[in-house]
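User: Study the chain.
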Amino acid sequence: MLTLNLFFFNQINGGSRYVGVGEGKNVQAFYYFIESENNPKEDPLMLWLTGGPGCSCLNVLMFEIGPFAIKKEEYNGSRPNLVLNPHSWTKVSSIIFVDLPVSTGFTYAKTKSASQRGDWLLVRQTHQFLRKWLIDHPEFLSNEVYIGGDSYSGIPIPVIVQEISQGNEKGLQPWINLQGYLLWNAYTTERDTNYRIPFSHGMGLISDELYESLQKNCKREYVNVDPRDVNSFMEVTSGLDQFYILDPACDWDWIIDDVVSWRKYLINKYPTKFINTSLKFSPLYCRNYVYFLGDYWANDDNVRKALHIRKGSIGKWHRCSFNVPYKKEINSSFEYHVNLSKKGYRSLIYSGDHDMVVPFLATQAWIRYLNYSIVNDWRPWHANGQVAGFTRTYSNRMTFATVKGGGHTVPEYKPEECFVMYSRWISNMTL
C-alpha cells in the first residue's frame, strides 16, 4: 500500500488549496483538484458540490468517483490504506471537489459573521469560487465546464448554474465555458418526500391495505401532515437502510464520533484483548464502515500536511456537519431547471432505483411536469453487456436515467455502471 499512498500524495500535492470567497475573503473554501487522466487540456472540467447540506466532498472523492478509495479492512490503529478506483470519473474529466458551504470539511470562516450558512450564500460563494479558481488556473479557461452534485445539492446547483450563466451574460470575468450540469438522486422540491410511500408500495415494503389507507387518509399528500397518519408506515419501514433498501441498517454511523473515540481508546489500552473480542462497535459488514476509516484517514497528521490544511483552521474533520445551522431559503429548484432548459444547457438527471430518501418516482414526477417533448422514449441502457438501467431523453437536452440496483449515492453502489453512463454523457454520446 506504500506505493499507492505515495501516488495519492503526488496526485493531491499542489492540487488542494484554499480560495477566499465572501466579504473580505473571510470564508476560506477548501478544494481538491484532480486533473483528467486522459487529456486535461481538452477534457471537460467538472465542479462538484456534495449534498447534506454540509457533507465534505471528500465523501465523493474517496467513496464514489475519485481515483482512489479507502480500503475496507478491519481498523488496526494505523492510517487506513488506499486502493485504486478503476471507475474514477477523472479518467475522462478534470474535477474540482469543493467543500462548501462554510464549516463543511476543511472549509472555515475567519470571522464569526462569515460562519453563516444558507442556500443563497452557498450559491453566491460557489459562483465566486469558480471564477476565482479559473483566474488562478487560466489553462482551463477554454475547457467545457459542468456543475455536478447529489442529494440536497439538487436545490442549489440549478441556481448556481443560472448565476454563472447570468454572470457570463453580464460580462463577468473570466468568461466560463458553461455547458450543463449533472445531478443524481437530488432534491428538487419538498414534495419529493411524498414519493417515499408509493415507492415503498411498489417495492413490496408495505401492504396494499396500508397503502390504500394512506392514500385515503392523507389524500396522497404526505408532507406537513399529522405524524399520526403515517406512524404505521414509519414503523413498518423503520428497520430499513433508506439510502439503499437492500443493505442492512447500520445505525452506528450516525454516532460515529462516539464509536471512533471509544474504539480507539480500547485499541490503545487493550490492543490484544480488544482485537480478539466480539465487540461490535463498528461492524465490518456494513457498507459505511469505510466512513469510520475515512475519519481516521482525514484526521491523520501526514494526510493533513499533504493536503496543506492550515494549522488551527479547524479541529477534527467531520464527514458531514449536520449540527451546524443552515438556512434553507430555496423551496424548489424546479423553475431554475426550466430557465436553464430554455437557454439550451445540457443536463443528466439520474436516480439509483433502490433509494428511498429521494425516490426515482419523485424525480420522474417533476421532469414529467416540465411537459417537454420526448426525443428518445423509455429504453434500457447497457454496461458490460447487461441492462444497467433505463433512460429517456427530452427535447430540452435533458437526459433522465435510472441505475438498476443503485442507492442514494449511486456510484458508491454501482461504480462501473455510473462510470459508463458518465463517460458517454460527458462525451455527448447516447447512453
User: Anything to note?
Assistant: The first helix runs from residue 2 to 12. Residues 252-267, 269-281 have pLDDT under 50 and may be disordered.
